[in-house]
Amino acid sequence: MKTHYITQGMPPEWSGVALVFTALGDDWRQRILLAFEPDERLSIKDIADALPLSRTAVVHHLGVLRDAGILLAEKSGRSVMYQLDESRLQWALDALRTYIQTLHPEQNLNLETDHA
Q1: 32, 47 contact by CB (below 8 A)
Q2: Cβ-Cβ contacts under 8 Å for 35 (sequence gap 6 or more)
């Protein structure tokens, strides 16, 4: 057992990984992410109009995704536009893949997805 992680806490390079996977742990946040087309920018109104949630709930979920670095937010006039940061998701998956490969170096784990 690697008790140093228990007593000393998470390694610094993992702090953001936990945020990403925590954000992905909610069904509504997953639905919001899946709604984005490649390179699409959506406003809070665009997203709230598509969901059967209150605007307050949508703002909360967008905040969690933004804080995890999964969504980028940019003010455009009076609106805030959100865009998916695919590189942040890839980074978290790569960190997890590296961890798994250190546990089982004898296995060639191919966790790549088909981006067709």
Answers
A1: yes
A2: 42, 47, 50
